[in-house]
Protein backbone atom coordinates (compact mmCIF):
# COMPACT_ATOMS: atom_id res chain seq x y z
CA UNK A 1 0.00 0.00 0.00
CA UNK A 2 2.84 2.39 0.87
CA UNK A 3 4.40 1.72 -2.52
CA UNK A 4 1.12 2.72 -4.25
CA UNK A 5 0.96 6.01 -2.33
CA UNK A 6 4.58 6.77 -3.21
CA UNK A 7 3.89 6.04 -6.88
CA UNK A 8 0.85 8.34 -6.91
CA UNK A 9 2.84 11.11 -5.22
CA UNK A 10 5.63 10.70 -7.78
CA UNK A 11 3.14 10.94 -10.65
CA UNK A 12 1.65 14.13 -9.19
CA UNK A 13 5.14 15.59 -8.82
CA UNK A 14 5.97 14.75 -12.45
CA UNK A 15 2.76 16.41 -13.64
CA UNK A 16 3.62 19.57 -11.72
CA UNK A 17 7.15 19.56 -13.12
CA UNK A 18 5.84 19.16 -16.68
CA UNK A 19 3.45 22.06 -16.17
CA UNK A 20 6.26 24.23 -14.82
CA UNK A 21 8.51 23.36 -17.75
CA UNK A 22 5.74 24.21 -20.24
CA UNK A 23 5.06 27.52 -18.50
CA UNK A 24 8.75 28.36 -18.40
CA UNK A 25 9.14 27.49 -22.08
CA UNK A 26 6.19 29.71 -22.98
CA UNK A 27 7.61 32.53 -20.86
CA UNK A 28 11.05 32.27 -22.48
CA UNK A 29 9.66 32.11 -26.01
CA UNK A 30 7.30 35.01 -25.35
CA UNK A 31 4.25 32.96 -26.45
CA UNK A 32 1.22 32.65 -24.24
CA UNK A 33 -1.10 29.67 -24.23
CA UNK A 34 -4.04 30.66 -26.42
CA UNK A 35 -7.45 29.36 -25.27
CA UNK A 36 -8.67 27.94 -28.58
CA UNK A 37 -9.99 24.59 -27.38
CA UNK A 38 -13.67 25.40 -27.96
CA UNK A 39 -12.98 27.22 -31.21
CA UNK A 40 -10.82 24.31 -32.40
CA UNK A 41 -13.67 21.89 -31.70
CA UNK A 42 -16.17 24.03 -33.61
CA UNK A 43 -13.76 24.46 -36.53
CA UNK A 44 -13.14 20.71 -36.79
CA UNK A 45 -16.90 20.12 -36.83
CA UNK A 46 -17.36 22.69 -39.61
CA UNK A 47 -14.54 21.15 -41.65
CA UNK A 48 -15.93 17.64 -41.14
CA UNK A 49 -19.40 18.75 -42.19
CA UNK A 50 -17.97 19.90 -45.50
CA UNK A 51 -15.94 16.70 -45.93
CA UNK A 52 -12.55 18.43 -46.08
CA UNK A 53 -9.54 16.13 -46.35
CA UNK A 54 -7.37 15.36 -43.34
CA UNK A 55 -4.41 17.25 -44.79
CA UNK A 56 -6.52 20.37 -45.40
CA UNK A 57 -7.99 20.12 -41.90
CA UNK A 58 -4.51 19.94 -40.35
CA UNK A 59 -3.27 22.86 -42.45
CA UNK A 60 -6.28 25.05 -41.56
CA UNK A 61 -5.96 24.30 -37.83
CA UNK A 62 -2.23 25.04 -37.86
CA UNK A 63 -2.86 28.36 -39.59
CA UNK A 64 -5.39 29.56 -37.01
CA UNK A 65 -3.12 28.48 -34.14
CA UNK A 66 -0.15 30.29 -35.72
CA UNK A 67 -2.31 33.37 -36.31
CA UNK A 68 -3.27 33.45 -32.60
CA UNK A 69 0.33 32.93 -31.44
CA UNK A 70 1.56 35.71 -33.70
CA UNK A 71 -0.55 38.29 -31.82
CA UNK A 72 -0.58 36.50 -28.40
CA UNK A 73 -4.35 36.73 -28.40
CA UNK A 74 -7.31 34.37 -28.98
CA UNK A 75 -8.18 34.35 -32.70
CA UNK A 76 -11.80 35.44 -32.12
CA UNK A 77 -10.44 38.75 -30.74
CA UNK A 78 -8.64 39.53 -34.00
CA UNK A 79 -9.90 41.04 -37.24
CA UNK A 80 -9.09 42.35 -40.74
CA UNK A 81 -6.31 44.66 -39.55
CA UNK A 82 -4.46 41.75 -37.92
CA UNK A 83 -5.03 39.56 -41.00
CA UNK A 84 -3.38 42.19 -43.20
CA UNK A 85 -0.44 42.49 -40.81
CA UNK A 86 -0.11 38.70 -40.59
CA UNK A 87 -0.19 38.36 -44.39
CA UNK A 88 2.46 41.04 -44.86
CA UNK A 89 4.71 39.32 -42.31
CA UNK A 90 4.45 36.01 -44.20
CA UNK A 91 5.68 37.70 -47.37
CA UNK A 92 8.24 40.15 -45.98
CA UNK A 93 9.73 38.31 -43.00
CA UNK A 94 9.04 34.60 -43.44
CA UNK A 95 9.46 34.74 -47.23
CA UNK A 96 6.70 32.18 -47.80
CA UNK A 97 5.59 31.24 -51.30
CA UNK A 98 2.49 32.92 -52.69
CA UNK A 99 0.61 29.60 -52.85
CA UNK A 100 1.34 28.98 -49.16
CA UNK A 101 0.13 32.46 -48.19
CA UNK A 102 -3.01 32.02 -50.30
CA UNK A 103 -3.80 28.75 -48.51
CA UNK A 104 -3.36 30.43 -45.11
CA UNK A 105 -5.60 33.33 -46.09
CA UNK A 106 -8.19 30.76 -47.19
CA UNK A 107 -7.91 29.07 -43.79
CA UNK A 108 -8.50 32.38 -42.00
CA UNK A 109 -11.42 33.16 -44.28
CA UNK A 110 -12.97 29.80 -43.39
CA UNK A 111 -12.43 30.45 -39.67
CA UNK A 112 -13.99 33.92 -39.70
CA UNK A 113 -16.93 33.13 -42.01
CA UNK A 114 -17.79 29.53 -41.03
CA UNK A 115 -16.75 29.36 -37.39
CA UNK A 116 -17.21 32.92 -36.13
CA UNK A 117 -20.00 33.71 -38.65
CA UNK A 118 -18.47 37.06 -39.50
CA UNK A 119 -18.55 38.84 -42.83
CA UNK A 120 -15.46 38.81 -45.05
CA UNK A 121 -14.82 41.70 -47.40
CA UNK A 122 -12.43 40.81 -50.19
CA UNK A 123 -11.42 44.50 -50.52
CA UNK A 124 -10.09 44.51 -46.94
CA UNK A 125 -8.36 41.14 -47.03
CA UNK A 126 -7.66 40.21 -50.67
CA UNK A 127 -6.03 36.97 -51.71
CA UNK A 128 -2.38 37.40 -52.73
CA UNK A 129 -1.68 37.47 -56.43
CA UNK A 130 -0.14 34.21 -57.58
CA UNK A 131 2.85 34.10 -59.87
CA UNK A 132 2.75 31.63 -62.74
CA UNK A 133 5.84 29.42 -62.65
CA UNK A 134 6.65 26.80 -65.22
CA UNK A 135 7.46 23.39 -63.73
CA UNK A 136 10.97 21.92 -63.81
CA UNK A 137 11.10 19.08 -66.34
CA UNK A 138 13.74 16.33 -66.50
CA UNK A 139 14.66 14.68 -69.76
CA UNK A 140 13.96 10.95 -70.11
CA UNK A 141 17.69 10.26 -69.72
CA UNK A 142 17.71 12.27 -66.47
CA UNK A 143 14.69 10.33 -65.17
CA UNK A 144 16.48 7.06 -65.99
CA UNK A 145 19.59 8.24 -64.15
CA UNK A 146 17.50 9.40 -61.18
CA UNK A 147 15.76 6.03 -60.78
CA UNK A 148 19.06 4.16 -61.17
CA UNK A 149 20.54 6.32 -58.37
CA UNK A 150 17.88 5.44 -55.78
CA UNK A 151 19.33 4.83 -52.34
CA UNK A 152 17.50 1.51 -51.77
CA UNK A 153 15.31 -0.83 -53.83
CA UNK A 154 12.34 0.44 -51.78
CA UNK A 155 13.14 4.00 -52.88
CA UNK A 156 13.56 2.82 -56.47
CA UNK A 157 10.01 1.42 -56.49
CA UNK A 158 8.70 4.72 -55.11
CA UNK A 159 10.39 6.67 -57.91
CA UNK A 160 9.27 4.24 -60.60
CA UNK A 161 5.66 4.43 -59.37
CA UNK A 162 5.68 8.23 -59.25
CA UNK A 163 6.93 8.52 -62.83
CA UNK A 164 4.83 5.67 -64.26
CA UNK A 165 1.52 6.92 -62.86
CA UNK A 166 1.85 10.66 -62.22
CA UNK A 167 0.27 10.30 -58.79
CA UNK A 168 0.77 12.85 -56.03
CA UNK A 169 2.97 11.76 -53.13
CA UNK A 170 0.02 11.53 -50.71
CA UNK A 171 -1.83 9.38 -53.26
CA UNK A 172 1.20 7.09 -53.56
CA UNK A 173 1.41 6.52 -49.79
CA UNK A 174 -2.28 5.51 -49.71
CA UNK A 175 -2.05 2.92 -52.49
CA UNK A 176 -3.25 -0.52 -51.41
CA UNK A 177 -2.79 -3.95 -52.91
CA UNK A 178 -6.45 -3.95 -53.88
CA UNK A 179 -5.89 -0.84 -56.00
CA UNK A 180 -3.73 -2.79 -58.46
CA UNK A 181 -5.96 -4.27 -61.15
CA UNK A 182 -3.65 -6.49 -63.21
CA UNK A 183 -6.59 -7.85 -65.24
CA UNK A 184 -7.54 -4.45 -66.67
CA UNK A 185 -3.99 -3.07 -66.24
CA UNK A 186 -5.12 -0.01 -64.30
CA UNK A 187 -4.42 1.41 -60.84
CA UNK A 188 -7.28 2.84 -58.81
CA UNK A 189 -6.27 6.11 -57.13
CA UNK A 190 -8.70 6.64 -54.26
CA UNK A 191 -9.36 9.79 -52.29
CA UNK A 192 -7.15 12.06 -54.37
CA UNK A 193 -7.17 15.84 -54.24
CA UNK A 194 -10.71 17.02 -53.62
CA UNK A 195 -11.59 13.46 -52.49
CA UNK A 196 -11.88 12.37 -56.13
CA UNK A 197 -11.13 8.84 -57.34
CA UNK A 198 -9.60 8.11 -60.73
CA UNK A 199 -7.90 5.33 -62.69
CA UNK A 200 -4.42 5.52 -64.21
CA UNK A 201 -2.63 3.13 -66.52
CA UNK A 202 -0.65 0.21 -65.09
CA UNK A 203 2.51 -0.24 -67.11
CA UNK A 204 3.69 -3.85 -67.52
CA UNK A 205 7.12 -2.68 -66.37
CA UNK A 206 5.60 -1.08 -63.27
CA UNK A 207 3.65 -4.26 -62.54
CA UNK A 208 6.88 -6.27 -62.69
CA UNK A 209 8.59 -3.71 -60.42
CA UNK A 210 5.75 -3.88 -57.87
CA UNK A 211 5.85 -7.69 -57.84
CA UNK A 212 9.60 -7.65 -57.16
CA UNK A 213 9.00 -5.01 -54.47
CA UNK A 214 6.39 -7.24 -52.81
CA UNK A 215 8.73 -10.23 -52.81
CA UNK A 216 11.51 -8.14 -51.22
CA UNK A 217 9.40 -7.01 -48.25
CA UNK A 218 10.34 -8.93 -45.05
CA UNK A 219 6.70 -9.09 -44.02
CA UNK A 220 4.13 -9.47 -46.77
CA UNK A 221 1.56 -6.68 -46.34
CA UNK A 222 -2.15 -7.40 -46.49
CA UNK A 223 -3.16 -3.84 -47.33
CA UNK A 224 -0.53 -1.16 -48.04
CA UNK A 225 1.81 -1.35 -51.02
CA UNK A 226 4.34 0.82 -49.20
CA UNK A 227 4.10 -0.17 -45.50
CA UNK A 228 5.65 2.12 -42.92
CA UNK A 229 7.98 1.43 -40.03
CA UNK A 230 11.75 1.18 -39.93
CA UNK A 231 11.80 -2.18 -41.73
CA UNK A 232 8.53 -1.58 -43.64
CA UNK A 233 6.64 -4.14 -41.62
CA UNK A 234 4.05 -1.87 -39.99
CA UNK A 235 0.28 -2.01 -40.44
CA UNK A 236 0.23 1.60 -41.60
CA UNK A 237 1.64 3.23 -44.78
CA UNK A 238 4.76 5.33 -45.15
CA UNK A 239 4.48 9.09 -44.73
CA UNK A 240 4.89 11.63 -47.51
CA UNK A 241 8.25 12.56 -45.97
CA UNK A 242 9.61 9.16 -47.02
CA UNK A 243 8.62 9.90 -50.62
CA UNK A 244 10.26 13.31 -50.47
CA UNK A 245 13.43 11.81 -48.95
CA UNK A 246 13.62 9.15 -51.69
CA UNK A 247 13.57 11.86 -54.37
CA UNK A 248 16.09 14.09 -52.62
CA UNK A 249 18.60 11.32 -52.00
CA UNK A 250 18.35 9.99 -55.56
CA UNK A 251 18.83 13.49 -57.01
CA UNK A 252 21.94 14.07 -54.91
CA UNK A 253 23.40 10.69 -55.83
CA UNK A 254 22.62 11.33 -59.53
CA UNK A 255 24.22 14.77 -59.42
CA UNK A 256 21.07 16.49 -60.70
CA UNK A 257 21.34 20.19 -59.86
CA UNK A 258 17.76 21.09 -60.79
CA UNK A 259 15.28 21.63 -57.93
CA UNK A 260 13.62 18.24 -57.57
CA UNK A 261 10.78 16.92 -55.42
CA UNK A 262 8.10 14.21 -55.85
CA UNK A 263 5.84 16.54 -57.85
CA UNK A 264 8.64 16.95 -60.41
CA UNK A 265 8.09 13.36 -61.55
CA UNK A 266 4.39 14.11 -61.91
CA UNK A 267 5.29 17.03 -64.18
CA UNK A 268 7.66 14.76 -66.15
CA UNK A 269 4.91 12.14 -66.51
CA UNK A 270 2.52 14.68 -68.05
CA UNK A 271 5.10 16.43 -70.25
CA UNK A 272 6.59 13.22 -71.64
CA UNK A 273 3.07 11.92 -72.42
CA UNK A 274 2.31 15.14 -74.29
CA UNK A 275 5.56 14.88 -76.24
CA UNK A 276 4.75 11.30 -77.21
CA UNK A 277 1.41 12.34 -78.72
CA UNK A 278 -1.16 12.04 -75.90
CA UNK A 279 -3.92 14.67 -75.99
CA UNK A 280 -4.50 17.19 -73.21
CA UNK A 281 -7.92 15.80 -72.24
CA UNK A 282 -6.43 12.34 -71.58
CA UNK A 283 -3.61 13.84 -69.54
CA UNK A 284 -6.14 15.90 -67.57
CA UNK A 285 -8.05 12.74 -66.61
CA UNK A 286 -4.87 10.87 -65.67
CA UNK A 287 -3.67 13.72 -63.45
CA UNK A 288 -7.08 14.28 -61.86
CA UNK A 289 -7.24 17.98 -62.80
CA UNK A 290 -10.70 19.47 -62.39
CA UNK A 291 -10.00 22.16 -65.01
CA UNK A 292 -8.27 21.67 -68.38
CA UNK A 293 -6.58 25.04 -67.81
CA UNK A 294 -4.40 23.41 -65.15
CA UNK A 295 -3.17 20.89 -67.71
CA UNK A 296 -2.35 23.40 -70.45
CA UNK A 297 0.74 24.51 -68.49
CA UNK A 298 2.53 21.49 -69.99
CA UNK A 299 2.18 23.00 -73.46
CA UNK A 300 4.67 25.65 -72.32
CA UNK A 301 7.34 23.09 -71.41
CA UNK A 302 6.77 20.40 -74.04
CA UNK A 303 9.86 20.21 -76.25
CA UNK A 304 7.81 18.85 -79.17
CA UNK A 305 5.41 21.80 -79.11
CA UNK A 306 8.17 24.37 -78.60
CA UNK A 307 10.39 23.09 -81.41
CA UNK A 308 7.46 22.68 -83.83
CA UNK A 309 7.19 26.45 -84.22
CA UNK A 310 10.03 28.29 -85.94
CA UNK A 311 11.29 31.60 -84.62
CA UNK A 312 10.52 34.62 -86.86
CA UNK A 313 14.25 35.38 -86.73
CA UNK A 314 14.86 32.44 -89.05
CA UNK A 315 12.77 34.12 -91.77
CA UNK A 316 14.91 37.28 -91.96
CA UNK A 317 16.88 37.69 -95.16
CA UNK A 318 20.14 38.27 -93.33
CA UNK A 319 19.98 34.71 -92.00
CA UNK A 320 18.69 33.10 -95.22
CA UNK A 321 21.46 31.20 -97.11
CA UNK A 322 22.28 32.93 -100.38
CA UNK A 323 22.14 30.92 -103.59
CA UNK A 324 25.55 29.70 -104.65
CA UNK A 325 27.19 30.73 -101.41
CA UNK A 326 28.05 27.17 -100.62
CA UNK A 327 29.55 26.44 -104.05
CA UNK A 328 33.26 25.79 -104.12
CA UNK A 329 35.59 27.69 -106.37
Defining key terms:
disordered N terminus; 329 residues; 3% strand; 2 domains; DNA polymerase, domain 1; hpI Integrase, Chain A; mainly alpha; 3-stranded antiparallel sheet
CATH class value of the largest domain: Mainly Alpha
| Count of strand segments | 3
Radius of gyration: 27 Å
Give the % helix.
Answer: 40-55%
The CATH architecture of the largest domain is: Orthogonal Bundle
- Kindly report the spatial arrangement of strands forming the biggest sheet: 1-2-3
Q: Give the total of domains.
A: 2
Q: What is the name of the CATH topology of the largest domain?
A: hpI Integrase, Chain A
Q: Give the N-terminus to C-terminus distance in angstroms.
A: 116 Å
CATH superfamily of the largest domain: Intergrase catalytic core
What is the N-to-C succession of helices and strands?
Answer: HHHHHHHHEEEHHHHHH
Name the quaternary structure: single chain
Amino acid sequence: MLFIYEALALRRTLRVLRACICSLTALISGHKEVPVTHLRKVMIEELDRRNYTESTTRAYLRTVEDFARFFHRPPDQLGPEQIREYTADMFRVRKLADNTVAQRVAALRFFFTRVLKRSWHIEETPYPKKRTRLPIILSQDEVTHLIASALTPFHRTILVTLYATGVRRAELTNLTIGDIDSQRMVIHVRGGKGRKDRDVMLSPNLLAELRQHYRRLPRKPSEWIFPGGRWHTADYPITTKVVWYACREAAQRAGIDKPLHPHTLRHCFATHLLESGADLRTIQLLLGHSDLKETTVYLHVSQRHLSATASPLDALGMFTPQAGSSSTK
